[in-house]
Amino acid sequence: MEDGTKILSSSVASQLDAHRKYGGVVPELASREHVRAIVAIVREALEMANTRLEDLDAIAVTNGPGLVGSLLVGLTYAKALCFAHNIPLIGVHHLEGHIQAAIIGIDIEYPALALVASGGHTHLFECLSEGKYRLEGRTRDDAAGEAYDKVSKLLGLGYPGGPVIDALAAHGNPRAVRFTSPKLKGNLSDFSFSGLKTAVLRWTEARDLGAAIEARKRCHKPSIEQLLELTDQETIDMLASFQWLVIEELLNRAGRAATRIGAKALLIGGGVAANRGLREAVKARRWDFPVYFPETKWSTDNGVMIAVAGYVRWKQKRFSGLDLKAQANLPLAQ
After folding, report:
1. Are residues 175 and 304 in the same domain?
2. Element (H, E) at 114
3. pLDDT at residue 334, rounded to an integer
4. Fewer CB within a 10 Å sphere, N or C end of the chain?
5. 109-113: long-range pairs with CB below 8 Å, 24+
6. For position 178, what pLDDT does the model report?
7. Domain range enclosing 37
8. Is residue 52 part of a domain?
9. Looking at the whole model, is its pTM more than 0.85?
């Protein structure tokens, strides 16, 4: 990345196929896949950008939060490159990457509110200024993306669940099943999705869906057309209702928090930000502040988001030492 806005290259090694048969990420497998891919991916990114390691002003690397084994692979390799070529190291918080991905090349006014929703995280942060954050709210149990994945696994729809449910929900009636919003005491900016996930489980148990679920499980990487043929309309309507409530929870709580802090912008990042239903729902909201999403390809985990967050820290001269540690539960707001 050049000047925080120009993306010279992006090389990605996906692990979806490796984890698909397990219905979720297997930590040990993820670490091994990182080891296998990282050298070739960095080499390819440099070649695509027509540059060399010696030309870099800094190397940005995620040091948390996340799976420690995977973090260690990237962190160890980044440290080795920085040491060997005398390049500054910049440790980046994973969630800051998702936030910055929403505003690549965009100047916003502060304060802003950031909603990060993915398979592992659902957080609200007040962005006080560039690179400075305060935690506003978070999920108390499942993350939004995690709820998608678990519902998808329950119904034999495959992994990851978000894109599949999003596509099927477009063919359903979102008001067909009246799922109940969680009643949370305390922080009104917190989220909870475990009750909704359980409600889907109870709905499924009350119906004879075993044969249809097994038929879907037997399909290897089925197309949406195949899944539509193998799924009855009542189940599709239920999925539309599930997605509707997830989106309502995300936007209602984000909207109230943005109003409360006087936000001049709302940034929405993370894998769930790629959800078409969510993006359409935002258009229907009559908020008096702009809403920014990353490009769909920068919504799920990628190196570009870490590079742009690294650039913010580079401008502020927030460099890291070679003693930088991987932290599974690294807080963003410090």
Report:
1. no
2. strand 112-117
3. 55
4. C
5. 109/264, 109/265, 110/264, 111/261, 111/262, 111/263, 111/264, 112/263, 112/264, 112/265, 112/266, 112/267, 113/254, 113/257, 113/258, 113/261, 113/263, 113/265, 113/266, 113/267
6. 96
7. 16-100+299-315
8. yes
9. yes
